[in-house]
What we know:
CATH 3.90.1030.10; three-stranded antiparallel β-sheet; mainly alpha; elongated
Amino acid sequence: MRHGKKVMHLGRKTAHRKSMLANMACSLIEHKRINTTVTKAKALKRFIEPIITKSKSDSTHNRRLAFSSLRDKEAVSELFRDIAAKVADRPGGYTRIIKLGNRLGDNADMAMIELVDFNEVYKTEEKAKKKSRRRGGKPKSTTATSDATDQVKPEVAAETQEPEKKAEAAKNEKKESKNKDGE
């Protein structure tokens, strides 16, 4: 039974496991996403999330705690400088694990772990849409130009309509001409 055993041992001794997680965390901070096995990704998530939470308040004590876990000065400085600024308003859940399938060599379950705020694909913010208009359509006009277009002759207005509307207008004109001929 597995009662009270919260640590994923990953088939390694304690020193090897801590060194591996520190190296993976430094790689994640540097590259913003890494590919690894699902079990290592889950262990890394539990390892790095508290460190990112500590980086939100920049103090000497928190920097020393992060350095004792990561063991890399450049990773600690990037964590407190870049990553802490992006995750300042996020209450948790700084990483995302996406399963990739099985590895060809040994059929191990692979996953990509990434920092949520550094992914451009899944951004929820709406990007500024480029204004575009269809060819042949009227550009959106202001009130001054709309007064000028009201004075356009009906024949010219019929030419600028879409093909379906043109066909409808032609049918209506034929009906009106037949009604006049019949009277």
